[in-house]
Design brief:
By secondary structure, the chain is of the alpha+beta class. It is built from 3 helices and 4 strands.
Length: about 100
């Protein structure tokens, strides 16, 4: 509990584009996308493993939605996912390319 008391009541996450800086804490409400989708259910109801293309689609959707304050994170938590190098670097690279965060 002592460490929690040391945390600031408010702080700022700085984006590459200052227009998208986000203040966390105080009376501020911040919405962020929940990433880590293991499976995708497509429009026909078929369940399948998430892919890199799904991650790219989610990044683009969140980037275009004004309701979200934070975009990012990493996908592919499925045991068959290619989380070994260089996959995480690929996620970071496309995040930087597709978002203003």
């Amino acid at each position: 509990m002592a460490w929690i008391q040391k945390a600031p009541g408010r702080f700022t996450l700085y984006a590459r584009n200052p227009k998208y800086d986000v203040s966390i804490g105080g009376d501020t409400t911040v919405f962020a996308a929940g990433y880590g989708e293991t499976f995708i259910v497509d429009a026909t109801g078929v369940k399948r493993n998430a892919s890199l293309e799904d991650y790219l689609d989610f990044l683009k959707l969140v980037q275009q939605c004004d309701l979200f304050s934070i975009n990012g994170g990493c996908s592919f938590n499925h045991p068959t996912s290619p989380m070994r190098s260089p996959f995480p670097c690929c996620c970071s690279r496309v995040f930087c390319i597709l978002t203003n965060a």
